[in-house]
Amino acid sequence: MSFSKNTKSFAYPVLVADIGGTNARFALVDDAEAPTRMCGKTATADHPDISSAIREVVLPETDPKPRTAIIAVAGPVTGDRIPLTNAAWVIEPLKMIADLGLDEVIVLNDFEAQALALPGYSGSDIEQVGSGTIREESAKFVLGPGTGLGAAAMIYAAQTWVPVPGEGGHVELGPVTPEDVAIWPHIELVGGRLGAEQILSGTGLPRLARGVAAYMGADRDFTTAASITTAAEENDPVAVKTLEVFARALGRVAGDFALAVLARGGVYLTGGVTSRITRFLTDGGFRAAFEAKAPHEALMAKIPTFIVRHPDPALEGLASFARAPEAFAVDMQGRQWTAGTASGAS
Question: What is catalyzed by this enzyme (predicted)?
Answer without folding.
Answer: D-glucose + ATP = D-glucose 6-phosphate + ADP + H(+)
